[in-house]
Amino acid sequence: MFVAPAFAQELETEADQNGHTEVGVEHGSTGVFPPFDSSTYPSQLLWLAITFGLFYLFLKKVVLPRIGGILEVRSDRIAQDLDQAARLKEESDAALAAYEQELADAKAKAGAIGQEARDVAKAEADAERKKVEASLESRLSEAEARIALIKDAAMRDVSQIAEETTGLIVQELLGSKTDKAAVSAAVKAVRG
Amino acid sequence: MADDPITQFQISKLVPIEIGGLDFSFTNSSLFMVATVATASAFLYLTTSSRGLVPSRLQSVSEMSYEFVANMLRDAAGTAGMKFFPLVFSLFTFVLVANMFGMFPYFFTVTSQIIVTFALALLVIGTVLVYGFWKHGFKFLKLFVPSGVPAAVLPMVVIIEIISFLSRPISLSVRLFANMLAGHITLKVFAGFIVSLSSLGAIGIGGAILPLIMTIAITALEFLVSFLQAYVFAVLACMYLNDAVHPGH
């Protein structure tokens, strides 16, 4: 059996009942369309008032303040955390700046120390070089003096040797003793 | 007849109670109101009980619905409207959970009862009226007199404004009621086709695939409608409450 014809029939009987009288009892209590059955209204209104009223009070007194509180605490907490994050960022920025400042200082100081050390080393090296040069100079002049001395001595020896040699050669050739003074004069004359 | 599409809206007494000649029985409707309220309360209460700074998934759901409704109300009625936040949040949650409960097979849909939706709509309009007159006195009536309208057509406009104001509770309640009612009837009818057709043998079973596909599609649509109608109800409530806070247009 189809429902649709049955439904149509149902509606017809309902229309009949609504049109004529409310006596006919087909289904339920009175046979009118249930939502329009005014005999159920007092009960529905009463129970709606009770249930909805309690619901309203419960939400108003308990649930909504609680959810509102949760949301407020959360937004407070988020704001607080954001503040703290900003503060920490500031601190870290300051620390970074201080670190960089310190680093720059240290670099400058290291440069200065290096420069100073270089200067000192250079000055020392210069002094050392000067000392060595001076000592070399003095030894050189000393050596030159000695050479001159030796040369003089050697020159003096040369004339003596020449005189002696000349004396000996003359003695051998002439077979007589030579006048020392004459030889020496001769040698001097030759040497010029 | 168990499977006609109207039976699902039938109200049956579970605990008969009668006071002063009026029937205040605890019915299946009452049961599902209790279930709706209990489920929504328990969910909201338990998921937020740990008060996690980092929310769990379920706690996020509660928080998101809180902020969703709060933004909705703030956009419509401004910061001054936030005093109605518990009301709007309760309405939205109640309607949403009731609608979603209705999507379970064999469950009763509280919001498919016109008296329930009408009562909720009246609650909104009543709040607007009471708060509006309490806060603004007779200046609240400026609500019906838009500024900048020529005096000649003013009476006409005022009449239209009054009619539109009076029709608000009706449109607000009928919109929700009709959507839920029509959706559930459609679902039931199409699902009924499947049963009827498949009892006709092989060809019938083949033909029953069409209403089956329709039923699946309409089920998805109904979930959307359930949420959307709760949202629409809450948004309109916000806009009406805005009138109570700022009566001048």
From TrEMBL, chain A:
It comes from the Bacteria. It is a single-pass membrane protein. The chain crosses the membrane at residues 41-59. Pfam families: ATP-synt_B. Its main location: membrane. Keywords: ATP synthesis, Cell membrane, CF(0), Coiled coil, Hydrogen ion transport, Ion transport, Membrane, Transmembrane, Transmembrane helix, Transport. Residues 82-153 form a coiled coil. Component of the F(0) channel, it forms part of the peripheral stalk, linking F(1) to F(0). The b'-subunit is a diverged and duplicated form of b found in plants and photosynthetic bacteria. F(1)F(0) ATP synthase produces ATP from ADP in the presence of a proton or sodium gradient. F-type ATPases consist of two structural domains, F(1) containing the extramembraneous catalytic core and F(0) containing the membrane proton channel, linked together by a central stalk and a peripheral stalk. During catalysis, ATP synthesis in the catalytic domain of F(1) is coupled via a rotary mechanism of the central stalk subunits to proton translocation. Belongs to the ATPase B chain family. F-type ATPases have 2 components, F(1) - the catalytic core - and F(0) - the membrane proton channel. F(1) has five subunits: alpha(3), beta(3), gamma(1), delta(1), epsilon(1). F(0) has three main subunits: a(1), b(2) and c(10-14). The alpha and beta chains form an alternating ring which encloses part of the gamma chain. F(1) is attached to F(0) by a central stalk formed by the gamma and epsilon chains, while a peripheral stalk is formed by the delta and b chains. This is ATP synthase subunit b. It comes from Neoaquamicrobium microcysteis. The lineage of its organism: Bacteria, Pseudomonadati, Pseudomonadota, Alphaproteobacteria, Hyphomicrobiales.
UniProtKB/TrEMBL annotation, chain B:
Keywords: ATP synthesis, Cell membrane, CF(0), Hydrogen ion transport, Ion transport, Membrane, Transmembrane, Transmembrane helix, Transport. Pfam families: ATP-synt_A. It comes from the Bacteria. It is found in: Cell membrane; Membrane. It is a multi-pass membrane protein. One of its GO terms (cellular component) is proton-transporting ATP synthase complex. One of its GO terms (molecular function) is proton-transporting ATP synthase activity, rotational mechanism. The chain crosses the membrane at residues 30-48, 84-108, 114-134, 143-167, 187-213, 220-242. InterPro entries: ATP_synth_F0_asu, ATP_synth_F0_asu_AS, ATP_synth_F0_asu_bact/mt, F0_ATP_A_sf. Its main location: membrane. SUPFAM superfamilies: F1F0 ATP synthase subunit A (SSF81336). Belongs to the ATPase A chain family. Key component of the proton channel; it plays a direct role in the translocation of protons across the membrane. This is ATP synthase subunit a. The lineage of its organism: Bacteria, Pseudomonadati, Pseudomonadota, Alphaproteobacteria, Hyphomicrobiales. The gene is atpB.
